Amino acid sequence: MEVESNAINIINHGTLIKGDITATGDFRLDGTLEGNIQLNGKLVVGDSGVVNGNILCLNANIIGTVNGNLSVKELLSLNATARVKGDILINKLSIEPGAVFTGKCRMLDEVRQQQEAEAAAAAAPAEEEE
After folding, report:
1. Would residue 101 count as lying in a domain?
2. Which of 26, 49, 80, 95 could in theory staple to 64 by disulfide, Cβ–Cβ 3.0 to 4.6 A?
3. Structural domains counted in the chain
4. Is residue 32 a contact partner of residue 49, using CB atoms and an 8 Å limit?
5. Chain-centroid distance, C-alpha 80
6. Which residues neighbour 16 within 8 Å (Cβ) at sequence distance 6 or greater?
7. Any domain includes 128
8. How far apart are CA 22 and CA 39, in angstroms?
9. Are 78 and 96 in contact (CB under 8 A)?
10. What pTM was computed for the model?
11. Quick check: is 126 in a domain?
12. Can you list the alpha helix ranges (DSSP code H) found in the chain?
């Protein structure tokens, strides 16, 4: 039996999950997760959704609460009701007025450039002092 990679997983309000979640499709969380999420698709944390853990995904729309670090390969959207406490690593960021974000934000391009500069510096021969 084949599983569709574009399937949408939904965890409803009132549901508590303790453990990590890995999925290939999109995911909507309106309940509470005590653990990490790793997706190849889009994550939506609904208005009653709470994540106490780290998130790695392609796209994310945060309407509820995230207590942990986010790494989003494409677009992270923080709605007006979003509450995020943790560092974010993103390609593109959209924040509506009213959203609360506490942490550091780094752009993937910035990280890539820093890594390239560090690699070039490490590869350059050390100059000898006279």
Report:
1. yes
2. 49
3. 1
4. yes
5. 17
6. 31, 32, 33, 34
7. no
8. 6
9. yes
10. 0.81
11. no
12. 108-123
